[in-house]
Design brief:
single chain, mainly alpha, two-stranded antiparallel ribbon
């Protein structure tokens, strides 16, 4: 490092940047600036290449448009021959509307009276009435009343049983 500083001191400069402080005599510009010629050449080549690329893209677009307009004479829906539909399953045209209609039909069945099978005499009733009837008939009880239920009452899950039933200890 000291040798480097001594070499510049010998050349008459105290630092490496001192040589850029003065413009050489007889010069109208600073010689350390970037050269303008290569920058202008680069800009011209960039402009020429951009024009060529845009002309090429316009030609490709024009060819694709011309090709697509020449094929207009073909049928738009080739599967619509003689009114025949494609094989099942077919795509839904309006899935939201069909889902809405399905849910409205299900809702109507849940909240109205009607026949399920008239020959068998099976009907459906509103869900609220069905739940009320089930409670009145005692289908849902809080505790089973038979003997096997009392035997199961002696079993309970412990904290470390992972849900397995163990016998209740009598102390």
């Amino acid at each position: 490092m000291a040798e480097h500083v001594q070499q510049h001191a010998v050349a008459g400069h105290a630092s490496a940047d001192d040589q850029y402080l003065e413009t050489p005599p007889g010069s109208t510009y600073e010689h350390t600036d970037a050269h303008v010629g290569p920058m202008i050449k680069f800009g011209l080549w960039l402009l020429i290449s951009a024009v060529i690329v845009h002309i090429g893209l316009a030609a490709m677009y024009w060819l694709l448009v011309r090709e697509s307009t020449e094929r207009v004479d073909t049928r738009r829906y080739p599967l619509a021959v003689n009114g025949r539909l494609p094989a099942e399953p077919r795509l839904q045209q309006f899935p939201r509307n069909e889902l809405y209609e399905f849910r409205m039909k299900e809702d109507a069945e849940l909240h109205t009276y009607g026949w399920v099978d008239k020959n068998a005499g099976t009907v459906h009733i509103p869900i609220e009435d069905a739940m009320r009837l089930m409670l009145q008939r005692g289908v849902f009880t809080s505790r089973p009343q038979d003997a096997s239920a009392s035997a199961q009452a002696d079993l309970f899950p412990s904290d470390a049983s992972s849900g397995r039933m163990v016998e209740k200890r009598r102390e």
